[in-house]
Amino acid sequence: MTATAGARTTLRPHDPDNLVEVDDLKVHFPIRSGLFKTVKGTVKAVDGVTFEVRRGETLGLVGESGCGKSTIGRAMIRLREPTAGTVRFDGVDLTSLKSGALRRMRRRMQIIFQDPYGSLDPRMTVGSIVSEPIETHRLAKGAAKKERVAELLRLVGLDPKYVKRYPHEFSGGQRQRIGVARALAVEPEFIVCDEPISALDVSIQAQVLNLLTDLRSRLGLTYLFVAHDLSVVKHISDRVAVMYLGKVVEVGPPDQLYAAPGHPYTRALLSAVPVPDPVSERKRKRVILKGDVPSPVNPPPGCRFHTRCWLYERLGKPENCRTIDPPLETIDGQHRAACHYAAEALKTDVGVAHLEHVQVRRGTPDAALALLEAGKADAVTEAEVAAAAPAADTGAVVS
């Protein structure tokens, strides 16, 4: 089902600085049962989401599993048909395009899938996988196509000699690089990164992240980066959007959102981030959310988070949390939160008491490290290292 006409009548004016504009996007999945597949209800995976992705930026999208992050990414490039709302790419309404026009528009937007093992056809060679979009859009053929494939493999850090190999001959990180090369084959402007590192080892995650960051600066790309890891999202994103049960509940620059989150759910997410510092770990205030995430088939009325909200309990269960769905309202500059009591949330230190701008080293002191690095490692005795080390827990600043 395509977007409803009623949703299009309330579109905001197109901003040339925005590459993608999402307005009141809804993606519902019917629940069918019985012999005749009668519709018994709908799963409201995405239920009225509005945001924009600016040219050249990386918008991070975070939230719990099942909140609708991947569904939004797929609906933005029409791999999933929206139930209502609109998605505009460079001012063009994607929901109104026919198949031929949509195929031509697909050159400008691509996706990197989450699973590097399932997203590559095991019967195709690397050369065939990367060259397939080139052939589909008739961008090159013959020697020019082979040279383009070799260039793409070099761009993502792979040897062009690998074109004759099959996906099972590569590691997970190498397969994800092949997926990145395939996405870059048609020279897109916008790429949906659908949890591209969640299936990889931690050491490989850093390599893929650095690759994506380098490609963005070299090629002028725009990303929607979907992930669970809050530290990764903060590292790579220019802005961060937090989702809960099909809704965007907070949006803002990472420095503002992580230092002073205005939504209780964001604070609960931050309080769950492990901290590699025993002193800060003991000081911070944890939030353990009670109960399970409500069903997207029948979400709660009012604020969808109020059934698990610690601030709702602390404020005496105000009625408007149960009856009125809060819109995204500006807190400061570009920072917006969908909470009736965002001002009260900002007054607490829940979830952010452990976040420090200056990291602290609580292991080997700087003075002892300098002594070891001076080339005296063989001659240094335990007594000299102890003399160079001040009293325990000095809080030496990491350079």
What would a concise description of this structure say?
The protein is of the alpha/beta class.
Describe it.
It is built from 16 helices and 14 strands. The protein has 399 residues and is of the alpha/beta class. The chain folds into 3 domains: 233 residues, 3-Layer(aba) Sandwich (Rossmann fold); 93 residues, no CATH class; 38 residues, no CATH class. Strands 6-7-8-3-9-10-12-11 form an 8-stranded mixed β-sheet, sandwiched between helices. It has a 4-stranded antiparallel β-sheet with strand order 2-1-4-5. A hairpin with a 4-residue loop joins strand 1 and strand 2. The termini are far apart. The N terminus and C terminus are likely disordered.
Trace the largest sheet across and list its strands.
Answer: 6-7-8-3-9-10-12-11
The appropriate CATH architecture of the largest domain is 3-Layer(aba) Sandwich
Can you tell me the CATH superfamily of the largest domain? P-loop containing nucleotide triphosphate hydrolases
Average pLDDT works out at: 85
Which CATH first-tier class of the largest domain would you pick?
Answer: Alpha Beta
Distance between the termini: 55 Å
Major β-sheet annotation: 8 strands, mixed
Residue windows where pLDDT falls under 50 for at least 5 positions: 1-9, 390-399
How much of the sequence lies in strands comes to 15-25%
Beta strands, count: 14
| 3D shape | globular
| CATH level 3 topology of the largest domain | Rossmann fold
Number of domains: 3
Q: What Rg, in angstroms, do the CA atoms define? A: 25 Å
Secondary-structure-based class equals alpha/beta
Give the fraction of residues assigned to helices: 25-40%
Write the H/E string, N to C.
HEEEHEEHEHHHEHEHEEHHHHHEEHEHHE
